[in-house]
Amino acid sequence: MRPFITRLLFLIFWLMAYRSSVAQAPARALRLDAAVEMARGQSIWAKQAATQKETAYWRWRSFTSDFKPQLSLSGTLPSFTRSFVEVTQPDGNIAFLPVSFNNSSLNLALSQRITRTGGTVFAQKQLQRFDNFIQNSTLYNGIPMAIGISQPLSQFNLWKWDKQTEPLQYNESQQQYLESLEQVALDATVYYFNLLIAQVNLNIAETNLVSSDTLYKIATQKLALGKISQNDLLQLQLGVLNAQKDLASARQGAEVAQLQLKTHLSYRGEEKLDLAIPLPGPAFPVDAAKARQEALSNRADAIAFKRRLLEASRDLERAKSNNGFNATLTAAFGLSNRGNQPLDIYQKPQDREFIQLEFSIPIMDWGRSKSRTATAKANLQLAQQTVEQDKMSFEQEVYTQVTLMGMLQQQVNLTARADEIAAQRFQIAQDRFLLSDLSITDLSIAIQEKDRAKRDYILALRDYWRAYYTLRLLTLYDFEQNRKIQ
Q1: How many domains does the chain have?
Q2: Both 418 and 452 in a single domain?
Q3: What is the pLDDT of residue 71?
Q4: Are residues 214 and 297 in the same domain?
Q5: What sign results for the dihedral spanned by CA atoms 449, 450, 454, 460?
Q6: Beta strand pairing status for 272-275 and 27-30?
Q7: Residue 32 confidence (pLDDT)
Q8: At what angle do helices 230-265 and 440-475 cross, to 10 degrees?
Q9: Strand 80-88 relative to strand 70-76: parallel, antiparallel, unpaired?
Q10: Whole-prediction pTM value?
Q11: Is 462 exposed, middle or buried, given 0-12, 13-18 or 19+ CB atoms closer than 10 A?
Q12: What is the C-alpha to C-alpha distance for residues 410 and 424, in angstroms, rounded to an integer?
């Protein structure tokens, strides 16, 4: 009969203390998948990624527009001058004569880049008007039609290289956006489990305080009955003090983790987040060869490998092209005329031809050209070596993550089973202590093992879900659904 009364008292004390300890403000329940989606949808980091993606898109639009025909209107209207100018007379003397005129012009031009050669073809129309206010006369000059070409000779063609590197850079930005979202999801998982572990520690601390306090009160009765020693009672009293200290520390840790998760999710609600323990992740096979293939196909880093090599080759060609003969040929053919009226320039216009060759040849540069070329060659070799090393590290990281996934799936199952066993063992130990069939030391060991098993299980879940989202980040592939991440 007495063991039954002892158990009943223990249960009453425990329920009263537990009810007071869990009286908290309303909280919002939140699961891991909901937290991840919230982070992807509204966090400041997700918005920054979207902004960077939009910036890259408009840069790409600006680049592609440069290779389309460009129509422009330019001119000087008006261009009025009233002054005295220096005029040399037939006898060699200088006279300063007054002038008052307006010299205005309009030019309509259509141009098109030639990517392969680096040149530009153009067509233009031009009209010029000259008003002499002193002589009260007006003259018109114009080009009804002209076509021409401006072609660099033996010069570096940046447009040709941009045609190769800019598409890679744009694709790189698109994949970088997907990686940013996966990184947001990974960070949300880290903060989620930080808070979950803090809440589990808080729950353990609250439960341990309730249990320690209840056991101490029951032990006080046992001491009066002579069933335990004063030393055991003092040990239980010390356990109550330690439990109070652990509870204060756990509350502080939970508050900090709560704030960090809310900040990452950009969550504005004032209520606390009450996190649910996620279920063990889905078990799905991950083939290392496929993971490597998807990573090299999808990741921004893999695209960057090609871009970095192209840019190094571009810089080498630039150094070679700028070290020798450089010239630009400009040629144009059209019609031109003058008259007293604007339409006079269209009446029997005359041929208009223009050809010009500009060139430069270095004669003595004291080895500067050779040094620039040698530097560019060395940079190309360094880029090739660096890319090769980065590629090996990249592939090794993917392989390591695939191996880790398989191990962590098994680890979750083992720690879940250990958590169940430790909880059952603690219940048995607690019942035996109430029956005076177990020492304080053995009960303390059972409590510690129970707490450690619970924490180990949560940590195993954390490691698994972190590895899950890390694998998605490294490959941009969803192995659970067997499809690329879009």
Answers
A1: 2
A2: yes
A3: 94
A4: yes
A5: positive
A6: parallel
A7: 92
A8: 20
A9: unpaired
A10: 0.78
A11: buried
A12: 22
Q: Record the tokens describing residue 438, joined without a space.
A: 């177990």
For β-strands 119-132 and 137-153, DSSP reports them as: antiparallel
H helix and E strand count, the chain: 9, 11
In a 3-state reduction of DSSP, which class is residue 110? strand
The answer on 39 and 88 residing in a single domain is: no
Q: What is the mean pLDDT of the chain?
A: 85
462, 480: one domain: yes
Q: In 10 A of CB 146, how many CB atoms?
A: 19
Orientation angle between helical segments 440-475 and 158-225, nearest 10 degrees: 170
Average the pLDDT over each of 45-49, 229-233, 325-329, 453-457 and give the range with the smallest value: 229-233
Residues 160, 157: Cα–Cα separation, whole Å: 6
- pLDDT for 18 beyond 60: no
Residue 334: strand, helix, or coil: strand
Cβ of 282: how many Cβ atoms within 10 Å? 9
| Backbone conformation region of residue 406, classed left if phi is above 0, alpha if psi is from -120 to 50, else beta | alpha
Judge whether 387 lies within some domain: yes
Give the helix, strand, coil percentages of the chain, each rounded to 5. 60, 20, 15
Q: What is the number of other CB atoms lying within 10 angstroms of the CB of residue 121?
A: 15
> Which helix H or strand E contains 404, and what residues bound it?
helix 368-434
| Residues 42, 166 within the same domain | yes
Lowest mean pLDDT among 16-20, 193-197, 325-329, 356-360: 16-20
Query: Do 93 and 241 share a domain, yes or no?
Result: no
DSSP assigned state of 154 = S
Give the residue from 458, 467, 443, 465 showing the smallest Cα distance to 10.
Answer: 443
Q: How far is residue 225 from each of residues 1, 218, 220, 393, 420, measured CA to CA in Å? A: 15, 11, 9, 69, 35
* pLDDT given for residue 19 in this prediction: 45
Reported as a single tens digit per residue, the pLDDT across 406-417 is: 888 888 888 888
Cis preceding linkage at 78, omega within 30: yes
Which residue shows structure tokens 């223990």?
A: 10
Listed residue (10, 27, 26, 24) closest to 210, CA to CA: 10
Question: 69-104: buried (b, 16+ CB within 10 Å) or exposed (e) per residue?
Answer: eeeeeeeeeeeeeeeeeeeeeeeeeeeeeeeebbbe
Strands, E, within 154-239: which ranges?
none
